[in-house]
Amino acid sequence: MARHNMGTIVSFEVKRTLSKTGFWIATLVVPVIMGAVIALIVVSNTSAAAGADQQARAQFTFTYSDASEYVIPAVAEAFGGISVTDDEKSIADVQAGSLDAHFAYPTNPAEEPTKVYAAEAGIFANGKYAAIASEVLIASAQAALDDQSLATLVRGDFQVSSTTFKEGRESAGLAEVIPPLLILLAFYASILLMGNLMATSLLEEKENRVSEMILTTMNPTTMVSGKVVSLFMVGAIQMVAISLPVLVGYLFFREELRLPYVDLASLSFEPWPMLVGALLLVGGFSLVTTTLAAASAIMPTARDAGAIAAPVSIVSFAPLWVGALVLSNPESFVVQILTYFPYTAAPTAMIRNALGTLGAMEATIVIVELFVLSSIIFRIAVRLFQYGSIEYSQKVALKAAFAKHE
Amino acid sequence: MASSLNVSGAVSTVSEDRSEPIVRIRGFRMDFDGHAVLRDLSFDVERGETFGFLGANGSGKTTTIRALLGIYQPTAGELLVNGRRFEPALGSNLGYLPEERGLYKKESVITVMTYFGRLKGLGKHAAASWSMEYLERVDLADRAKVRVDKLSGGEQQKVQLGVTIMGEPELLILDEPTKGFDPVNRRLLLGIIEERRHAGATVLMVTHQMDEVERLCDRVLLLKNGVAEAYGTISEVQAQYGGTTAKVAFTGDIPDSPRYRVMRRENNYAELDLDESVDEAAVLRDLVQAGVRVRSFATGRPSMDDIFVRVYGGHDEPDEV
User: Count of H helices and E strands in chain A?
Assistant: First the structure.
């Protein structure tokens, strides 16, 4: 009967949550905003690329004087430049509008600025003059080198391949860090998006005055379990709803968005970090869910419950406030506190797990801590719901809820 | 529609001794903040009877029911349903209409009813078809897909009663079932309760409507100062409370007398409570000799309404928690 009822509760809760307009607004507001930003970036990048092409095609005439003698006339000529010695005259021509630009290369361009005088072409297009002035100098310097490979090296146009070893085997580097970090992302997204839902999960029965009918129809443990499971399911649906537009954006608009190419095949899903990450995610989510559910059993209104939800959410972001310390010195006192304090333990351990600085013993302790605490708080939530859910207009007195009677 | 709704669902999973009372309360005490709301309450509700649980506001009726159903932890005492402490997970077949009414307000009527039907162990289709049948009976079939908060208060009460009696529970606990109903709907509701009673259900009813008590209840308990002030059949309680009432239509002033007590006086009508030993003819003679023009004089047992007024004296008890 209890299992049957739990299925009924989960089905009822999930369906009615998904049928609420407010839920979809809250869920889709992030991807919709992201979509709008993506669209803006695509449009902007497209027009910027078109503009750049246009600028590249738009030739302009310029003169130049070269005190450094680094500029090779043939190179400058290829860019449309004419060598002159009288700067004053060229500047006057530019001012008069009979010449597009004049570049004055100093004796030592490495230490002194190259001066560019040019006709106004608009705030964005003005950049082309400095760009050509630089390009003429770079191309001349490269041409002066006999060895083209050397010229490539001077431009910094070369690759470095790193191989690192961890515990005697080759490490996948960043590709190994990304998948466990995605779990952290899922954790934070769920807290941000579902905090309010969690904090009002048991409040609806109280606000609708159905608590008594519920309590005489089913075991309160079944009720609270059903609520928690439905929150897990709604959270999973929310993750899919949010991830889908991101995935579409990456797969179909990566070039336009100038997103870095991530070779998905190169991502390394190491079993241990992924397992630890998954357990931390479930444990952390359970702890926050049961805590907020317990809070909702105490509070008379959603507003009051929200007052508890906010600090719990904020505290869970503490590891990010001291992110540099978590990355650089995981053994520090502060990071150790964050690793074991229940409401910061999951995210801190997730970061350290991704970076490979969370030992097996530490991981075990944190996971056990999260699950044991979740279980205790779950029992508290059940008790508070059982003996507090008919306190319709005031906070539940904890002393009364936990009072021992014969 | 059929005179009764016949979809039974939830089945009791624990063997029961059918000869035992369905509800047994012994030595029940309930303290709130050190104050005893109920002191030493004991009573039984027998199977198949309709039991009136009566008392002034704040006398502890709802508290007793909540403790019986495990919502409150009793300070002391034994409160049993079917011989054991109430535990919904054990499959006790109970229908409870609480004093504090409520439903999931943002869901449709049929969704809410089907949900509760499922929780009571009915199949999805059985719950839905039972609900539709019930809604037709109470003239709400066309409101089945309407959100609960769009219904009037009386309509919501009808829906809640439907949820309560769904699954043919063997024990119905109704806390002021007709509160807020107009006379037409009240009659409809009492008809449904009576129907469940004839189908064999036990009804434990809290009400302040004494005509309902006289119409429906086999036995009653009057709760006062945390203990049972009176407990028994209607006749027994009537006998316990003064025996005879004289209803007098008159002109003039009814004098004070040691033979009777004036229970009610409205214009030219009065109800007198006579002591057991008093001769009714002597009372009539006293009235006439005092110059009262008596137009009619009839004696009988006191009504439950009279008894209620006599017991509680028109005063509520301190607020119930």
Answer: 18, 6
